[in-house]
Write a sequence for this structure.
């Protein structure tokens, strides 16, 4: 019986200590991690797609979140052109060849046309799918197209030229942009409201 | 029988170097060694967990009842794995991104649990740390070596851990043998390295 | 020998040599030799007192039993004086005592058999006669023999000795079968002969069946399976099923012995020369092989091969002074320059052996296990014991693996292991 | 329904847990020398993984997410799996001794089988619903079992071949596993 | 019992049908000649040098490994040369020398040597070596890319199997296949690798092998049947005009060389009837599946690797041996 008590006590104490340690660590690292994510995943892309924006240096700080329901939310980065918050960028995800693939879509709030897109996270096969991130051919095709439609590669009957040898990745990008359009449609009023504050 | 601290430390670097001599920890060895940096990073993360877990298990070895020791080990290991995951996210985020699921998977790495059970639970603190450090660094070396072979042959480049990527084999005359950085290349590369290690005597 | 045919689409076959094809071959009689040697099972080690000594006088037809209190003996086919007693080990590691008898001028016969012998007398006198008539299982109360299978067909290629006996000694065969029925009390006797000899055995009062002409359909286990319709379980013998298998030549010898009252000692042997030309000779059991070879003036050189038995299952031997044994159906010599070589290659999995194996043994897998000395696994999983020892797999193997030798070794090792396990 | 089938094919073949994601290699090499052990391990993994998938899903969505404890995922999951294995072992021993005789020796190995833990994490990462989690757990485990059994078949034969000494055992096992991974790449793009 | 002569004492049987491994190798090379000759005629001296380099380097590597492992040379059995020749047949007319060097090295090392030489290999060495090389240096093994500089023919210069792949995605596979009628494919009036251009030559060679018994008809026919039936099902029940028909699939890509030459590799193929049929049909089905819905233009290589893996399990399906005791447990 004594053994039993000891076992329970030791395990409980260990688990409690572990819980405390981890919650402490979590509190300390959470803000650091958020900044890391921003800096590593979204910032490089934001830099390219908003390279002409006035607020390039401050747009990360100007970001805001919009609730999508179901505990999901999306972070919106506003881009200011000529003093006006004309465009916003946000990220949409889909699945590519080797895992998740994120696409940052910048959209003009007046015309609903895409300003630019850029691939954020990609674990695609080196040399094939990863070209989606490095080579601008695919992303450039979206420039100026209206966001509120669905996209697909030519092989599937759409208008987008796939990257040679990386059809799956190209499709994933199309899917991500299409889903970005759907998100955009549902949250546009909120975005407009929020950007007014800037 | 009693070994010096140095012996406890150095045995992990050659005689019992995982995964070559101790065939354990194959998953990370296969999964993350597409570059040297990934291999070394994974190895260091494992070393951190190994040393901390060995330390704590050794300190608590008289308190932990034998019947629930495995559960206790797992709690200890899982705590440090979570911790190392958080630290890596906070400070070396790109590396964390590359290693992905393999960081939480350190918790089921047989090397860590194996050392806790086979060594730390039976030995005093200092030898346990030496053992953990030795095995961990040996694992790091092995992963780094495998990463180097795969990266150099497969891409022609060499990523200095936490440093720049150097081009070893120039694209002018070398077309990378991309097979090596793909999944099958991992298995075959490790298999052939294991064969080479078998040709070298362990002592 | 038959080469691989151009058409490899169909399963390769080997045809038995039949007498029909060789009808012109006359039977040559080998004169009685000066010395004869008889093999008695047993070892001389640890036996100080041999019941037989050098210098003992023996009569023709007398039992030679060198070890006292033993059932093992051989029947001397000549009268004379024992000149040597030597240990001998055969290719299957069985120990024998070789008893050499020098012929006396006067060939006196022991009075042993009589015209109306009983089972014990026949068993005692004919087991070393031509064809080795072994009736021990009938005497053994533990085996319940209910069928006797008389094989009127040679089991190996190029051999026609048994067929010759069936063809020329049909009357003795009929008499032998009748005697067998009487002395053993077994009513079910099946005589198996090739199709061209069915006419020669019409006088036999038993079931007569035809055997196919392609090798190895005369193998006893295959005869049981294909002709009698009973399958011998793997690892069991015909005796375990209550079937006694006898050579037709032995049964004919029994018939002759009953007629003459003294044991028949003359064996028919097919002699195959280097060029493949064959002839049947009649020779007393125990005669040195050299005497038989002299009939055709066959000269052997270094590196040649001397085989007791046929080309598929015969045993290569090293000396021409060895005797003709009761079971020696053929003596074959091969030119050393033309021997097919054996290689230490690993199985290439071509499947030729699978095509030809009459017992459907997965030879391709079996040989891998045997090569790794995993005999128990080989027997349990890969049907080692189903093998009927025909040697066909080795004959067709393009990698030239000595499969038949592997199998023989494996069976030997297993039989050695079995008592240890108990 | 179509999605489910795609998910199954993806988990078994295209993203095979062993050959494409490198998880569970220690038991893969350890229990593949004989076909019978491979079968036992495959069954044990399927059995445990489906249960672990379901329970970790519940733990994730009803405990961790609810109380904002996502950072305890690793520790929670491994404890769930370890105690599940213990529980299954005791339950089988008492209630279904026949099954226990077959799976018993493999159950303790499963705690440190990273395929089990990995699949649970992947399920959460992909954000699968409960049904999808069940299907994906089963399919991943089936993929593990399939690869293991196929590999064991090949390996039984390799053991009999004249493999050069330094390559024997694990080394040739890894090389052969590499060819398996290569072959499974043939399924790429099928979903 | 003495004799002064020394006879050869060996185990039975004392005769042999004279067959040997090298005979099969040389017969297979003979059977490959029509297709190879035609390829060299079409593509010229470049193709000849590719073939020669493949054969010679394969033999050289084998010899080198024999030396390293201190074994007697095994190139005499012709298997290395045959492996090299078949690899050469899969090559486009122009391939850099170092690709061939590496490819034959990988083929001999991973295909044969690590498994202890011929017979031990669970995978078809040619298929394995080609798959690894294709994965790394696919562009050098691509017929279209290889033909682009310097070759001009008066027929359709696209590699059919590649041309149809992109057409299938747009739903026009059948139309694309119509550009390559069977007679064109049979008579080598299309672009393909050196040894797979001349369909008729491969068929003639294959029939020779079947007649000689060096290739099991069960394997060959079941494979072709698998391809034909699957392709026919796809074109019949798939979207209208999306998938090419059976004849196209049989006569393009590596189908024919696989049916007649890959299948004749013994070590990786089954030996019993039912396993042979399953093996062939399985490989055929997978071939067309990968071509029609997979990521690669030609599925033959992966289909064979996958079936090689299945082979040891298939081989357990076998007829009951004589007198085998079935335990009732």
């Amino acid at each position: 019986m004594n053994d039993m008590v000891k076992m329970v006590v030791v395990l409980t104490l260990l688990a409690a200590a572990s819980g405390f340690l981890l919650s402490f660590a979590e509190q300390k690292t959470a803000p650091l991690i958020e900044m890391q994510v921003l800096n590593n995943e979204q910032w490089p892309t934001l830099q390219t797609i908003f390279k002409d924006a006035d607020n390039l240096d401050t747009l990360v700080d100007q970001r805001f979140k919009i609730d999508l329901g179901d505990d999901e939310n999306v972070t919106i980065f506003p881009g200011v052109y000529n003093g006006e918050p004309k465009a916003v960028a946000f990220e949409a995800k889909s699945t590519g060849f080797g895992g998740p693939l994120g696409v940052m879509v910048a959209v003009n709030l007046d015309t609903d046309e895409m300003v630019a897109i850029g691939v954020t996270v990609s674990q695609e096969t080196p040399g094939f799918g990863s070209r989606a991130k490095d080579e601008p051919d695919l992303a450039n095709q979206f420039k100026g197209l209206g966001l509120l439609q669905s996209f697909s590669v030519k092989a599937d009957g759409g208008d987008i030229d796939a990257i040679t040898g990386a059809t799956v990745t190209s499709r994933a990008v199309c899917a991500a942009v299409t889903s970005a359009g759907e998100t955009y449609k549902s949250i546009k009023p909120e975005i407009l409201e929020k950007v007014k504050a800037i | 029988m009693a070994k010096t601290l140095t012996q406890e430390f150095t045995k992990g670097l050659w005689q019992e170097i995982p995964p070559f001599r101790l065939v354990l920890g194959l998953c990370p060895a296969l999964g993350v060694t597409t570059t040297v940096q990934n291999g070394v990073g994974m190895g260091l993360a494992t070393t951190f967990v190994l040393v901390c877990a060995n330390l704590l298990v050794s300190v608590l070895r008289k308190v932990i009842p034998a019947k629930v020791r495995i559960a206790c080990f797992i709690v200890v290991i899982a705590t440090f794995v979570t911790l190392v995951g958080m630290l890596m996210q906070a400070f070396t985020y790109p590396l964390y991104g590359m290693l992905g699921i393999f960081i939480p998977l350190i918790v089921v790495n047989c090397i860590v649990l194996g050392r806790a059970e086979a060594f730390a639970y039976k030995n005093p603190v200092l030898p346990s740390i030496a053992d953990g450090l030795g095995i961990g660094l040996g694992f790091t070396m092995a992963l780094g070596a495998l990463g180097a072979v795969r990266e150099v042959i497969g891409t022609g480049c060499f990523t200095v851990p936490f440093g720049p990527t150097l081009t070893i084999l120039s694209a002018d005359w070398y077309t990378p043998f991309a097979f090596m950085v793909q999944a099958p290349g991992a298995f075959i590369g490790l298999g052939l390295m294991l064969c080479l290690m078998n040709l070298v005597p362990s002592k | 020998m038959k080469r691989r045919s151009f058409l490899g689409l169909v399963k390769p076959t080997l045809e038995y040599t039949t007498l029909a094809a060789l009808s012109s071959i006359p039977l040559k009689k080998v004169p009685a030799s000066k010395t004869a040697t008889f093999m008695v099972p047993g070892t001389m080690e640890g036996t100080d007192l041999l019941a037989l000594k050098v210098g003992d006088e023996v009569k023709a037809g007398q039992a030679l039993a060198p070890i006292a209190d033993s059932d093992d003996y051989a029947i001397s086919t000549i009268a004379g004086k024992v000149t040597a007693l030597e240990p001998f080990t055969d290719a299957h590691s069985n120990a024998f005592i070789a008893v050499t008898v020098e012929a006396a001028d006067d060939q006196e016969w022991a009075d042993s058999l009589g015209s109306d012998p009983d089972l014990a007398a026949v068993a005692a006198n004919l087991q070393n006669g031509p064809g080795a008539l072994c009736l021990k299982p009938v005497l053994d109360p533990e085996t319940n023999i209910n069928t006797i299978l008389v094989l009127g067909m040679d089991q190996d290629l190029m051999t026609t000795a048994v067929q010759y006996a069936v063809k020329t000694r049909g009357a003795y065969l009929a008499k032998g079968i009748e005697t067998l029925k009487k002395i053993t009390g077994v009513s079910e006797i099946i005589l198996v002969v090739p199709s061209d000899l069915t006419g020669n055995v019409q006088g036999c009062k038993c079931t007569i069946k035809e055997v196919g002409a392609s090798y190895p359909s005369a193998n006893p286990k295959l005869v049981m399976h294909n002709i009698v319709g009973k399958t011998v379980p793997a690892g069991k013998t015909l005796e375990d099923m209550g079937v006694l298998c006898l050579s037709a030549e032995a049964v004919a010898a029994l018939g002759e012995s009953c007629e003459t009252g003294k044991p028949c000692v003359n064996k028919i042997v097919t002699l195959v020369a280097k060029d493949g030309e064959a002839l049947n000779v009649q020779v007393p059991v125990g005669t040195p092989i050299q005497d038989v070879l002299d009939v055709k003036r066959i000269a052997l050189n270094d590196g040649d091969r001397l085989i007791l038995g046929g080309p598929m299952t015969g045993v290569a031997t090293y000396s021409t002074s060895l005797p003709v044994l009761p079971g020696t159906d053929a003596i074959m010599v091969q030119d050393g320059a033309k021997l097919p070589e054996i290689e230490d290659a690993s199985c290439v999995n071509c499947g030729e052996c699978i095509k030809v194996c009459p017992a459907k043994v997965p030879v391709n897998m079996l040989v891998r296990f045997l090569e790794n000395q995993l005999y128990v696994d080989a027997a349990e999983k890969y049907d080692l014991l189903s093998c009927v020892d025909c040697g066909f797999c080795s004959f067709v193997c393009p990698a030239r693996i000595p499969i038949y030798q592997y199998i023989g070794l494996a069976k030997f090792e297993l039989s050695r292991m079995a008592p240890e396990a108990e | 329904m179509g999605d489910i089938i795609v998910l199954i094919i993806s988990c078994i073949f295209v993203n095979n847990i062993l050959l494409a994601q490198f998880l569970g290699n220690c038991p893969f090499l350890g229990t593949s020398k004989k076909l019978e052990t491979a079968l036992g391990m495959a069954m044990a993994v399927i059995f445990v993984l489906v249960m672990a998938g379901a329970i970790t899903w519940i733990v994730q969505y009803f405990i961790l997410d609810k109380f904002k404890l996502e950072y305890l995922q690793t520790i929670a999951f491994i404890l769930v799996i370890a105690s599940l294995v213990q529980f299954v072992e005791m339950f089988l021993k008492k209630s279904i001794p026949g099954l226990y005789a077959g799976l018993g020796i493999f159950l303790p190995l499963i705690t440190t089988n990273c395929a089990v833990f990995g699949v649970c994490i992947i399920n959460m990462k992909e954000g699968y619903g409960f049904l999808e989690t069940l299907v994906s757990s089963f399919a991943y485990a089936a993929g593990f079992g399939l690869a293991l059994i196929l590999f064991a078949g090949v390996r039984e034969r390799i053991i009999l071949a004249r493999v050069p000494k330094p390559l024997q055992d694990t080394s040739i096992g890894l090389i052969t596993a590499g060819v398996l991974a290569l072959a499974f790449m043939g399924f790429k793009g099928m979903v | 019992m003495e004799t002064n002569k020394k006879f050869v004492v060996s185990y039975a049987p004392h005769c042999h049908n004279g067959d040997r491994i090298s005979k099969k190798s040389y017969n297979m090379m003979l059977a490959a000649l029509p297709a190879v000759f035609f390829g060299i005629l079409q593509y010229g001296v470049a193709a000849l040098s590719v073939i020669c380099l493949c054969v010679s380097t394969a033999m050289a590597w084998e010899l080198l490994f024999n030396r390293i492992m201190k074994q007697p040379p095994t190139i005499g059995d012709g298997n290395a040369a045959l492996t090299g020749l078949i690899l050469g047949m899969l090559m486009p007319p122009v391939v850099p020398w170092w690709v061939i060097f590496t490819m034959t090295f990988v083929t001999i090392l991973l295909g044969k040597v690590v498994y202890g030489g011929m017979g031990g290999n669970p995978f078809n060495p040619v298929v394995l070596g080609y798959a690894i090389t294709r994965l790394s240096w696919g562009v050098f093994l691509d017929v279209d890319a290889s033909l682009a500089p310097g070759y001009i023919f008066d027929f359709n210069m696209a590699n059919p199997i590649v041309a149809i792949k992109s057409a299938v995605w747009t739903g026009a596979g059948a139309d694309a296949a119509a550009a390559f009628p069977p007679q064109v494919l049979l008579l080598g009036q299309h672009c393909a690798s050196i040894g797979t251009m001349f369909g008729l030559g491969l068929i003639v060679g294959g029939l020779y092998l079947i007649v000689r018994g060096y290739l099991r008809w069960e394997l060959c026919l079941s494979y072709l049947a698998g391809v034909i039936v699957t392709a026919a099902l796809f074109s019949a029940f798939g979207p209208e005009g999306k998938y090419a028909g059976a004849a196209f699939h049989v006569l393009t890509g590596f189908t024919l060389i696989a049916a007649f030459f890959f299948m004749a590799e013994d070590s990786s193929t089954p030996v019993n009837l039912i396993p042979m049929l399953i093996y062939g049909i399985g490989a055929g089905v997978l071939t067309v599946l990968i071509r029609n819905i997979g990521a690669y233009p030609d599925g033959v290589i992966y289909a064979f690797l996958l079936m090689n893996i299945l082979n040891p399990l298939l081989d357990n399906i076998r007829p009951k041996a004589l007198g085998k005791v079935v335990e009732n447990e």
Summary: The mean pLDDT of chain B is 89. The interface with chain D takes residues 23-27, 30-31, 70-71, 74-75, 78-79, 81-82, 85-86, 101, 104-105, 107-110, 113, 182-188, 190-192, 194-196, 198-199 of chain B (CB under 8 Å). The beta strands of chain B are 157-159, 165-167.
